[in-house]
UniProtKB/TrEMBL annotation:
<feature type="transmembrane region" description="Helical">
    <location>
        <begin position="20"/>
        <end position="41"/>
    </location>
</feature>
<feature type="compositionally biased region" description="Polar residues">
    <location>
        <begin position="78"/>
        <end position="98"/>
    </location>
</feature>
<dbReference type="GO" id="GO:0005737">
    <property type="term" value="C:cytoplasm"/>
</dbReference>
<feature type="region of interest" description="Disordered">
    <location>
        <begin position="64"/>
        <end position="117"/>
    </location>
</feature>
<feature type="compositionally biased region" description="Polar residues">
    <location>
        <begin position="463"/>
        <end position="475"/>
    </location>
</feature>
<keyword id="KW-1133">Transmembrane helix</keyword>
<keyword id="KW-0472">Membrane</keyword>
<dbReference type="Pfam" id="PF03124">
    <property type="entry name" value="EXS"/>
</dbReference>
<keyword id="KW-0812">Transmembrane</keyword>
<feature type="compositionally biased region" description="Polar residues">
    <location>
        <begin position="108"/>
        <end position="117"/>
    </location>
</feature>
<feature type="domain" description="EXS">
    <location>
        <begin position="244"/>
        <end position="461"/>
    </location>
</feature>
<protein>
    <submittedName>
        <fullName>ERD1 family protein</fullName>
    </submittedName>
</protein>
<feature type="transmembrane region" description="Helical">
    <location>
        <begin position="152"/>
        <end position="172"/>
    </location>
</feature>
<dbReference type="InterPro" id="IPR004342">
    <property type="entry name" value="EXS_C"/>
</dbReference>
<feature type="region of interest" description="Disordered">
    <location>
        <begin position="456"/>
        <end position="475"/>
    </location>
</feature>
<dbReference type="GO" id="GO:0016020">
    <property type="term" value="C:membrane"/>
</dbReference>
<feature type="transmembrane region" description="Helical">
    <location>
        <begin position="316"/>
        <end position="335"/>
    </location>
</feature>
Length: 475
């Protein structure tokens, strides 16, 4: 969720400020590179994030198969594409799915129709190189179009997007992984607007898979990117005239910025409906989550309206109201991050079972964090501290005129900070989901270890018996 939901400047010169137009592609490029960092750390700490993301899809597909295959929403091809967009050593799907896909891909008759799995695999190195290439392309396209051709910033941005699309569509083996990832993104985007709670035919609601929750949360962090896209089309539509200071001119980009929050809130309401049907005692958590996303919409509304008024006194009053709304949203979201999304602060200092990853609860701080920390206590504390700081990065608005040349650069800075915060949030969110998915398996493993320890404790006693005593026992 964005740390500051203020909208950018849209009214002014018809050519548009170059910084405003460069914001969206720059932030997207940064997000791609930061996801590469996530992939590297997941691999380093042996967290199979692909399996974590796709496990709900696999279970849904298997449940559909047992019921007769009525669910056609997520077919095997999508599961395979999701699994290939970032596979790391270890099982990413069920053996049945992976082996079946390998047999299909390696069959002699289909050798020309399938891309080498190594080419389709997404790795941290590929993501980082791709982001650097996009950054270079953005620089070259803007310099060439503006400085050499004499075109506008709007034309330079459209040329950049066009070059990226053409480059991805070219059937090159080296870009096969990008096309696979894009197809997966398009499919998951469709699932975000798919009315899962009103399925045609059966009418049975279907739970939102974790991958769609994760994807929608990522879109919330790119809320300002959606606003910039709406602003770009407005500037292009009125070019070379300035955008008129009318209400609809700011409403359309603001609605685009609010779409991720509406989608995520709707997902929560769908899960609340499912919880009510199943009489789930914790269904209220989904309603609280939906309310959290609604607190992100009010700053957008107030900020958008603030751009349309000229009365300085009214602007000052709205500014104070906007600060209150931002404080409520940041505090609510921070508490939800720590407690619900990361599973922290759910233990006591009294001790208890720790799942086998931590031997004691001697440290109260360790208990407050979480008994299972795949990234370790120092790293988890560091991520927690940075998230707290970045959640309140909107306080930079108090020094906006001192630190930033204009409001657009301030918005760009908050976008970068939000992209960094989201990349750190991803680490603990996927880690916590991984722990929850493997909770039963780890508990079984702990029981096995305990039985082995008991046998090891009893074995020396039997061996320490004297031969005469053992003879008496046998007789």
């Amino acid at each position: 969720m964005s740390s500051g939901q203020e909208v950018g400047e849209i009214f002014g010169d018809g050519s548009g400020p170059a910084m405003s137009l460069l914001r969206s592609p720059t932030v997207i490029i940064a997000a791609v590179g930061l996801w590469g960092m996530n992939v590297y750390l997941f691999k380093l700490f042996k967290i199979d994030y692909v399996h974590v993301l796709t496990l709900d899809l696999i279970k849904e597909k298997e449940a559909s198969a047992r019921k007769g295959g009525d669910n056609k929403e997520d077919d095997n091809s999508d599961l395979c594409s999701v699994g290939s967009t970032g596979s790391i050593p270890g099982p990413t799907m069920t053996n049945r799915n992976t082996k079946g896909s390998k047999r299909r891909a390696n069959s002699p008759g289909d050798s020309n129709n399938h891309v080498n799995s190594a080419d389709s695999e997404v790795t941290a190195g590929k993501l980082i190189i791709f982001s650097l290439s996009l950054l270079l392309l953005l620089h070259m396209s803007t310099v060439t179009w503006i400085d050499f051709i004499g075109g506008s910033a709007i034309g330079a941005i459209f040329i950049f997007y066009l070059a990226v699309i053409v480059g991805i569509l070219l059937p090159l083996p080296s870009t096969a992984w990008i096309r696979t990832a894009c197809m997966t993104i398009f499919h998951r985007t469709f699932e975000l607007i798919n009315p899962r709670c009103f399925c045609l035919g059966s009418g049975i609601p279907r739970a939102i898979p974790f991958i769609d929750v994760f994807f929608a949360d990522a879109c919330c962090s790119l809320s300002k990117v959606f606003f910039d896209w709406g602003m770009l089309w407005h500037l292009a539509w009125h070019y070379p005239e300035p955008v008129p200071m009318e209400l609809h001119s700011i409403i359309i980009p603001s609605v685009a910025a609010s779409l991720p929050y509406f989608i995520r809130a709707r997902q929560c309401l769908v899960m609340y409906t499912i919880g009510a049907m199943k009489a789930d005692a914790k269904k209220y958590q989904h309603m609280l989550n939906a309310i959290k996303y609604s607190t992100s919409l009010w700053p957008l509304v107030v900020s958008a309206y603030q751009k349309t008024i000229t009365n300085e006194k009214e602007k000052a009053a709205l500014e104070a109201f906007l600060i209150v709304l931002l404080a409520i949203n940041s505090t609510y979201s921070l508490a939800w991050d720590i407690i619900m999304d990361w599973g922290m602060m759910q233990n006591t200092c009294a001790g208890g079972s720790n799942g086998g990853l931590t031997k004691s609860h001697s440290s109260c701080a360790h208990s407050v964090l979480r008994p299972k920390l795949r990234f370790g206590a120092p790293t988890s504390i560091g991520i927690l501290f940075i998230d707290i700081v970045l959640r309140y990065s909107w306080v930079l608005r108090f020094w906006e005129t001192d630190l930033f040349p204009n409001a657009d650069i301030y918005i760009l800075c908050t976008q970068f900070l939000e992209a960094i915060r989201r990349s750190l949030w991803n680490l603990l969110r996927v880690e916590w989901e991984h722990i929850k998915q493997n909770k039963g398996k780890e508990e079984d493993a702990d029981d096995d270890v305990e039985m082995m320890e008991q046998k090891a404790f009893l074995a020396p006693k039997s061996r320490s018996m004297s031969p005469s005593f053992q003879h008496k026992q046998r007789s």
